[in-house]
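A.,

Following up on our hallway conversation. Structure tokens first:
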């Protein structure tokens, strides 16, 4: 009986043993990245169900691997054919990935993978070598091998890949984009200047003709009115051109400690606003004349938005290492399209026939230029219950200045 029992047991266990060996082989294949192995259903119903589930798992893994391979191929194609030069360096500063643009720019077309990044840039032109050695984004110009001038934008980012620090460096040619932007800006300037000059010169020409006729007839009373109108239009035109000259010739800021009470009292004589909140204990550190001009432009814009004069608010707050100067109103605010363009020079939503130089589109642009000259920035945002918030954010010195100056 014992041999018979052993034979029957082996017969009953043989499908399980075969399946166990097959599953072991399949798992080893999966570990090696081979998902092509399929198991044929065999044995009792429970074992057949297990093999069918295993087959479905293998199919899912094969589809996922194929999908990942397609995505990797697509990503590699995009990276290799993008006009932006891309270099990825590993923790040892050896190049892990360099696309075609990077190989052409840095290595005359040869492969850079595995090379030391420091050795690759050692023989490059000085401007390019300094940019690639920097940890900050920047624009720079250099002369190429064919003698042409090219402007590049360099950016770099650090990140961790599989627990190891890596650095990605990007170089983008900007000459064409900058040239198009420059041409577009000049066209916009010419349109604005032509429009404003025509608005002033056409009435001056007509009034001059009328004045000549009145002089012939001896009508001195009306002649004085005509000459006064000509002087008014000429004065407006002079102020318009002076505004453009101030924007084009903005001097470097002369930073100095500024006492808040005296500075704000003088600003209040130039534009109406309501001061909200307590003033910072530390004095300001900026060019008082330039910041006063920037705030005055923002306050005038707030009044011209249609806001109630009593709702034009100025806030002065210190946030860590930054000073926030905020001008708030309750006008209609700005659409997303206008917000994205409002800080550009010569962009204005005001009517050109209002007779105000503010319609030249230089108010916000000048405020932005002043903020950036102080190593700061300007931010625009719509308020929840209507209106606009314009914030000048200026850096504060590490140590508080001791002798606040009187406003100029």
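Then the amino acids I'd put at each of the 408 positions:
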């Amino acid at each position: 009986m014992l041999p018979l029992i052993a034979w029957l047991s082996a017969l009953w266990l043989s499908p399980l043993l075969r399946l166990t060996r097959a599953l072991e082989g399949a798992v080893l294949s999966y570990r090696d990245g081979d998902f092509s192995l399929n198991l044929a259903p065999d044995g009792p119903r429970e074992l057949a169900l297990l093999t069918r589930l295993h087959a479905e798992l293998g199919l899912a893994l094969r589809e996922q691997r194929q999908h990942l391979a397609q995505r990797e191929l697509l990503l590699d194609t995009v990276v290799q054919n993008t006009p932006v030069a891309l270099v990825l360096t590993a923790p040892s500063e050896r190049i892990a990935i360099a696309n075609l643009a990077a190989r052409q720019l840095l290595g005359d077309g040869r492969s850079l993978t595995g090379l030391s990044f420091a050795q690759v840039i050692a023989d490059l032109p000085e401007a390019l070598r300094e940019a690639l050695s920097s940890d900050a984004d920047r624009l720079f110009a250099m002369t190429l091998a064919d003698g042409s001038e090219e402007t590049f934008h360099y950016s770099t980012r650090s990140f961790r890949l599989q627990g190891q620090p890596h650095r990605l460096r990007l170089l983008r040619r900007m000459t064409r984009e900058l040239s198009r932007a420059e041409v577009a800006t000049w066209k916009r300037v010419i349109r604005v200047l032509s429009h404003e000059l025509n608005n002033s010169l056409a009435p001056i020409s007509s009034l001059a003709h009328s004045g000549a006729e009145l002089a012939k007839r001896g009508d001195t009373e009306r002649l004085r009115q005509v000459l006064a109108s000509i002087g008014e239009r000429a004065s407006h035109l002079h102020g318009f051109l002076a505004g453009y000259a101030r924007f084009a010739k903005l001097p470097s800021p002369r930073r100095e400690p500024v006492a808040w009470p005296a500075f704000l009292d003088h600003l209040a004589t130039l534009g109406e606003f309501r001061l909200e909140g307590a003033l910072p204990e530390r004095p300001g550190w900026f060019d008082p004349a330039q910041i006063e001009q920037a705030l005055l432009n923002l306050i005038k814009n707030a009044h011209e938005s249609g806001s109630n004069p009593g709702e034009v608010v100025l806030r002065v707050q210190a946030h860590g290492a930054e000073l926030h100067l905020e001008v708030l109103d309750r006008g209609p605010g700005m659409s997303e399209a206008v917000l994205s363009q409002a800080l550009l020079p010569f962009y204005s939503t005001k009517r050109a026939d209002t007779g105000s130089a503010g319609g030249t589109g230089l108010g916000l642009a000048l405020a932005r230029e002043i903020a950036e000259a102080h190593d700061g920035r300007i931010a625009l945002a719509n308020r929840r219950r209507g209106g606009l918030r314009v914030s000048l954010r200026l850096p504060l010195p590490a140590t508080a200045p001791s002798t606040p100056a009187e406003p100029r």
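The chain has four domains: 14-78, 82-173, 179-248, 256-395. Curious whether your intuition agrees with the design.

B.
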